[in-house]
Amino acid sequence: MILCLDVGNSQIYCGVYEDDSLVCQFRIGSSARASSDELGVFMRGALRENGLDPDGIKQIAISSVVPDMQHSLRACCQKYFEIEPMVLRPGVRTGLKILYKDPKEVGADRIADAIGALKLFPGRNLIVVDFGTATTVTAITAKGEFLGGNIVPGIRLAVEALVEKTAKLPSVEIVPAETAIGRSTVESIQNGLYWSNVGMVKELVSRMTEEAFPEAPPLVIGTGGFSHFFDRQELFDAVVPDLILVGLREALRLNSGN
Q: Would residue 19 show up in a list of annotated catalytic residues for this protein?
């Protein structure tokens, strides 16, 4: 079995593959202060609770946007699984041609998204919208060229900023909006969050398509925790919530031959 770890700013998203089938998923909050022992005990326990033998893990792949967790995660893999993990970072084979001005600036999560998207939808121009702590919108050509894209505050981060930086605005449940006009403070915040993200995705996809793919419109893929949040708006041609895990599994294959 293969354990794939997507280390985000808020959570570690863990997925277990048996061959090419995702057989288990679980999450833990990500904290730079977490020790290797805390992580190892949790992961082995979570595997057992999901009916899997932790000793059946033979390979581990990591994508991380939290540099301070790298040491603890690597030590966790070595101590609790006796495995040296593959960490998605510069120098690792990805099958992509990174066209960023400085390729080292590209987050591992965006690289994993791109690898996963090309694996699932080969031969297509692609735009991937990933709703995480930050929302990223990334353009990838059918030839595997990572063109770049956009990074904006994520939905939950926007809520937290409103609560923290204003005196009277409350924290709200994040729900799809039914109308454009909110008739209470809570509804106004909820609607603003929803429709601003709908508009943002539509505008960026339109502009990126015109700029990068005028001859062959891209397939638009939604992923991340809030990817199904906008189902009624039909923003995406496909929604793949576990796209990063798909990309990590493929990156491991590219670098190990398995």
A: no
Please tell me the CATH code under which domain 2-87 is placed: 3.30.420.40
CA nearest to 141, candidates 202, 204, 233, 216 = 216
Q: What's the chain's average pLDDT?
A: 93
Q: How confident is the model at residue 168 (pLDDT cuts 50, 70, 90)?
A: confident
26-40, 164-178, 181-195, 205-219: the lowest-pLDDT one: 26-40
Strands (E), the chain: 2-7, 11-18, 21-29, 59-64, 86-87, 97-98, 126-131, 134-140, 145-153, 219-224, 238-239
- DSSP-derived pairing of the beta strands 11-18 and 145-153: unpaired
Neighbouring C-beta atoms of residue 164, cutoff 10 Å: 9
CA end-to-end span of the chain: 11
Q: Which of 109, 113, 130, 242 is catalytic?
A: 109
pLDDT at 225: 85
Q: Which two tokens stand for residue 112?
A: 């994993």
- Give per-residue pLDDT as tens, 50-60: 999 999 999 99
The percent of residues in the chain predicted with pLDDT above 70, rounded, is 99
Alpha-carbon span 170 to 172, nearest angstrom: 6
Domains of the chain by residue range: 2-87, 97-247
C-beta separation of 113 from 8 below 8 A: no
In the predicted model, is pLDDT for residue 30 greater than 80? no
DSSP 124: S
For residues 8 and 52, give the distance between their C-alpha atoms in angstroms, rounded to a whole number.
24
Domain 97-247 carries which CATH code? 3.30.420.40
